[in-house]
Amino acid sequence: MKNKATSIKCDYIRMFSKEEIEAVHKASLTILEKTGVLVKHEEGLHMLEAAGASVDHETQHVTMPEELVERCLATVPSKIILAARDPEKDLVIEHGRLPVARNGGGSDYTLDLDTGEFRPLYTDDLKDYIRLMDGLEYIDFVAPVYAHDLPVVGRDIRVLELMFANTSKHVHMRAFSKQSLEFILQMATVVAGSKESLKQRPVLSLLEAPVSPLTYLDVTVDALFLCGEYGIPLELCCMPIAGGTGPITLGGNMMLANAEFLAGVVISQLANPRAPLEYAPRCMIMDMKTTVGLTGSIEGAMMAAAGAQMAREKYNIPISLHGPWTDSMLPDGQSGLERANFAFLAGLAGTNVFSGAGMIEQGKTFSHVQLAVDDDILGMIRLVLGGISTGGDCLAVEAIDRVGPGGNFLVDELTLKYLRAERFFPKLMERRTRETWEAMGSKDLRERAKDRVKQILTDHEPTPLDDTIAKELASLVQTSEEALTSD
């Protein structure tokens, strides 16, 4: 496991005092007990009513007593396994470990690698992206982007087939419907070997989201039910937009996301106690000049950091936050500034998972170049979070004594020992002299990133999928298309 023996060593950033954490939690409980949520799922309504919630079946309105929420919070696991087709790439998610990272999912447009043209994303792009992420060092697992030349019905299933074939890392998905989710879970079972093996080593995780404010659609409830049954980790993404679908105050918007998450906890844990959940407070703000929901704002990063603190200090539940994230249309200076701010603040606040790598333009567009840059950003953050070691010979007392005043440490034995262990070696940062840089073509960051992408796509071959498994997946995809198009 890549992060098996690594842990956070630096102190966390805290957005809230202990008293403010309790205030956010109590306000969230008040919202659930007084204001309530809409749950558009008949089976879910009956389950909630039987557990002590107040339910109006006609309006689908539910209020949840504090005792019920607290009882369900107590059964959420504090540790999640994200297994991979290659067991060496399994991930352990829990507080105290270094975070892991994935790309942003959901985009269906791209910037052409050769021309930079903005255009629809196609199947060949999709395959390249998956292979690229399989080859990048700090992208630990892979989320879907969508190709326009795949059929709309069943597109999520076809994408999953391509993901299993082109990466041996953990795969993260979002299902378009309950019926497609059932096929997705069957496919994951085939790759894992059995339903029981899937529960022990889930090679698939899922994202679902309530609709802000305070609405759980049937597909989200179905996902909570089925993921709990199969032991599939589910990332519950709460994205109120301050000033739009959420209160304009940062505290109020963040608290709304918290209340929406707690409502999902109740639904999940009543159906399947100990079902693995990730808290994903992806709070946004509305630009009051343009009404655009912003993803790269510093205010959004602050709310994300606050959410990390709630998950870590109050709930002890794994958390997933946007890290590399931007509103820019290009992998440019704005993108670099916004995603570095967002990622470092989220990392120092204690996120377990970074998402968003490769995405630009509020997540609508995916970029090869940006993905390669983000790989370097994520590597730098991990070095920072690992802290500075003072144990053993790291304080270098003997080395300083050996070299003495006026000497140098270039050939000292300590330098040779720690040459790689105490350094991060970025793939894209320019660190040569101007003369050397000019002799090598005077390439800027985007050009160097483009070169790296092409090198990985030329040289990297993912571990192939077993032929028997590939045939079973193809058969399931065919069955799913027939079932979905006949409805």
Explain how this protein is built.
With 487 residues, the protein is of the alpha/beta class. Helices cover 46% and strands 14% of the residues. It has a single domain, classed as Alpha-Beta Barrel (TIM Barrel). The protein has a 5-stranded parallel beta sheet with strand order 9-10-11-13-15. Strands 2-3-1-12 form a 4-stranded mixed beta sheet. Mean pLDDT is 96; it is low at 1-5.
What are the defining features of this structure?
single chain; 487 residues; alpha/beta; TIM Barrel; four-stranded mixed sheet; 17 helices
Topology (elements, then pairings):
Elements: H1 18-35, E1 37-39, H2 42-50, E2 54-56, E3 61-63, H3 66-73, E4 80-82, E5 91-93, E6 100-103, E7 109-111, E8 118-120, H4 123-135, E9 141-142, H5 155-166, E10 170-173, H6 178-192, H7 195-200, E11 204-208, E12 215-216, H8 218-230, E13 234-238, E14 241-242, H9 250-271, E15 277-281, E16 284-286, E17 293-294, H10 298-315, E18 320-322, H11 333-349, E19 353-357, E20 359-360, E21 365-366, H12 368-385, H13 397-403, H14 413-418, H15 434-439, H16 445-459, H17 467-486
Parallel strand pairs: 1-12, 6-19, 7-21, 9-10, 10-11, 11-13, 13-15, 14-16, 18-19
Antiparallel strand pairs: 1-3, 2-3, 4-5, 7-8, 16-17, 20-21
Helix pairs in contact: 1-9, 3-9, 4-5, 5-6, 5-17, 6-8, 6-17, 8-9, 9-10, 10-11, 11-12, 12-16
What best-fitting shape do the alpha-carbon axes yield?
A: globular
- Give the oligomer, counting copies of the same chain as homo and different chains as hetero: single chain
Taking the sheet with the most strands, its summary is: 5 strands, parallel
Into how many domains do the coordinates divide? 1
The unreliable regions are 1-5
Q: What is the C-level CATH assignment?
A: Alpha Beta
Rg: 23 Å
Structural class: alpha/beta
Q: How many H/I helical runs?
A: 17
